[in-house]
Specification:
Elements (H helix, E strand, L loop, with lengths): L2 E3 L2 E4 L2 E5 L25 E5 L1 E2 L5 E2 L10 H8 L15 E7 L5 H12 L17 E4 L9 H17 L4 E7 L4 H13 L4 E4 L1 E4 L17 E5 L8 E2 L7 E9 L11 E4 L6 E7 L2 H4 L11 H5 L2 E4 L2 E4 L6 E9 L2 E7 L5 H14 L8 H12 E2 L27 E2 L4
Helix pairs in contact: 2-3, 3-7
Length: 411
């Protein structure tokens, strides 16, 4: 079983994958192979914005070069993405990642200052009133890994942007071992998280159903990226208790703006497919809406769990801005990133904002499949993530590339 982290880099129009460090080449970096008892890997994708004098890719700028919260709000009409929205009040969003981010809070506040969000302080208690930030190391303070730190910056900054009144808890696994990551999920549950974001995953394996219980804590929603390698089902996104998030392209967006937004289509790297292990969950078998090239999801997937459930911006060419002061290839500052990593924390924030506002349409897979898709999802009806025909093609209704679509007008 191979585990990955999900963020993408663009070099002169082509994606560059990062696995713990940035490569100066244009090909995907290979990460260490992993097994259930082994370690996780994570591809990161960053938009390369130029070249340094020595020819290496330029990854950062002193000011943002990617989409800002207001631009994403313009595309999706997400009311939480306003610094004054008060969205997510009373919620605890847990971000589960590996390794240690030494400057997590100060980087988050740099992001906040740039976009007009209020300064966050460290939580004195998770029962205190108002938003705050907590860095939890239940397995001891891990060492620093620059690739994972970049993911952590993305996750906490954009979950906070979606739900600025929620508490953000960064739960750091001691390493990217599978055991440590899943124990970190359990720690998030014990902290009372109302939403848990997981921007990592890997290939399915026969024993994955034994881990599904990690995602059944009462009152908690779980989001996971569907993958960045095109058509394939991955875990934990394949778990029936997790909301799997696929990836899209925002056509007409450029740089920091979406003022020219025209349409949303599939991102070619988006993960998706039918699980080889997990059976079809009840919310998918009970879905009565349209299915692309099939009459039911069961017929589309052969009676197995379909992935993803929903989607979100992921193309690194229209990536989002994050601030990270931990150096990668000697560079730090404002990065532009993509990948289905973007979707998992944003959806966690969207769920937090919706729950706090008393809205129900998108609050979990059961709500989405039973009718929420009709009112608050934009159906993505074009684009592919592979060469496998229907299974790799987005179309009207549910499909195995973007699920039921991206959020719109919520909460």
């Amino acid at each position: 079983m191979s585990w990955q982290r999900r963020t993408s880099v663009l070099v002169a129009g082509a994606a560059l994958t990062i696995a713990g460090a940035v490569s100066a080449g244009g090909a995907a970096l290979a990460a260490p192979a992993a097994h259930l008892s082994g370690t996780a890997k994570l591809p990161l994708k960053i938009k390369v914005i130029g070249r340094l004098p020595d020819g290496r890719p330029m990854l950062t700028s002193t000011s943002p070069t990617g989409l800002r919260p207001a631009a994403i709000a313009n595309v999706y009409k997400l009311s939480g993405l306003s610094p004054t929205s008060g969205a997510g009040a009373g919620q605890i969003i847990a971000i589960v990642d590996a390794f240690h981010d030494p400057n997590a809070l100060s980087d988050l506040n740099k992001f906040d200052a740039q976009y007009g969000y209020a300064h966050l302080s460290s939580c004195t208690s998770l029962s205190q009133s108002g938003p705050c930030f907590k860095q939890a190391d239940p397995q001891g303070t891990p060492r620093v890994n620059a690739g994972w730190v970049l993911e952590e910056s993305l996750d906490i900054e954009w979950a906070h942007a979606e739900a600025p009144a929620a508490k953000i808890v960064l739960v750091e696994a001691a390493s990217n071992s599978n055991t440590n990551l899943f124990n970190a999920v359990q720690s998030a549950n014990s902290l009372g998280a109302t939403e848990v974001s997981m921007s990592w995953g890997g290939g399915e394996f026969s024993g994955e159903t034994t881990l599904d219980s990690h995602f059944t804590h009462a009152g908690t929603f779980y989001t996971a990226s569907a993958g960045d390698s095109g058509h394939a089902a991955e875990y934990p996104a394949a778990s029936p208790h997790v909301m799997a998030v696929g990836g899209t392209t925002l056509n007409g967006c450029s740089g920091t703006s979406c003022s020219g937004f025209k349409s949303e289509t599939t991102w070619s790297g988006s993960g998706g497919g039918a699980s080889a292990v997990e059976p079809l969950p009840g919310y998918q078998s009970g879905y009565t809406g349209p299915v692309f090239h099939a009459s039911t999801i069961s017929l589309l997937t052969g009676g197995k769990r379909g992935i993803p459930d929903v989607s979100f911006e992921a193309n690194p060419s229209t990536g989002v801005s994050i601030f990270d002061s931990t150096r990668i290839q000697g560079q730090s500052g404002w990065f532009t990133v993509g990948g289905t990593s973007v979707g998992a924390p944003n959806w966690a924030g969207i769920l937090a904002a919706g729950r706090a506002a008393g809205k129900t349409a998108l609050q979990g897979s059961s709500a989405i499949y039973s009718g929420g898709y009709k009112t608050n999802l934009r159906d993505i009806t074009s684009g592919t993530n592979g060469t496998c025909g229907t299974d790799c093609t987005a179309g009207t209704g549910y499909d195995l590339v973007t699920g039921l679509g991206s959020p719109i007008n919520y909460p």
